[in-house]
Amino acid sequence: MSPILGILASSNYQRVTSSYYSIATTTLGTATASVTFSSIPATYTHLQIRALTSNASYASTSASLYLNSDTTAANYRNHYLYGSGSAAGSSTDGNSAANGVMGSGMSTGPAAWVIDLLDYQNTNKYKTIRLLNGYDTNGAGYVWFGSNLWMNTNAVSSFTITAPVGTFAINSSFALYGIKGA
Questions:
Q1: What residues form DSSP beta bridges with 113?
Q2: Phi and psi for 6 in degrees, rounded to 5?
Q3: pLDDT in tens, 94-133
Q4: Taking the complete model, does pTM exceed 0.85, yes or no?
Q5: What is the spatial distance between Cα 151 and Cα 102, in angstroms, rounded to a whole number?
Q6: Secondary element (H or E) of residue 6
Q7: Phi-psi region of 99 (alpha: psi -120 to 50; beta: other; left: phi over 0)
Q8: How are the residues of the chain apportioned to helix, strand and coil, as percentages rounded to the nearest 5?
Q9: What contacts 170, CB < 8 A, 6 or more positions away?
Q10: Where are the domains of the chain?
Q11: How far apart are alpha carbons 7 and 11 in whole angstroms?
């Protein structure tokens, strides 16, 4: 009789330790126009930003992500896919400051983000950002998937997320994780 493969394979199982390490978190105690993470350690391969936000005043424009305080529009490119439940689309923005495809929700509906900043310390290439975002617009909503490019080879040591219009609402939260490994 042959052994059951799942049992055989599990006998060689080794526990994998976490590759995600919490670097910093913040929950807003007051409405705030932007959130900055600075002095990011250079000890990880990638970074991940997770956020739950509401926008204190609804805006149809998107939140912005600036790396190393660089607000030069010509240094950013992005493209994205989106769906609303009734429509879908895609677009690309060249010379678009701040990778503006992150919907920030509104005061009556939240937004959730997961943003990966790949190879943030590699000084031999431009930085790639991967984004998954969804937000409610008072009973309807959107989901976005995008990738962005910061055309700069500097290592990333800080970033700022700016609300599209007005401020992020009280209790919006942001967490930064470092990812080790390939």
A1: 51, 133
A2: -60, -40
A3: 655 555 546 555 555 678 889 999 999 999 999 999 988 8
A4: no
A5: 19
A6: helix 5-10
A7: left
A8: 5, 45, 45
A9: 28, 29, 30, 31
A10: 26-179
A11: 6
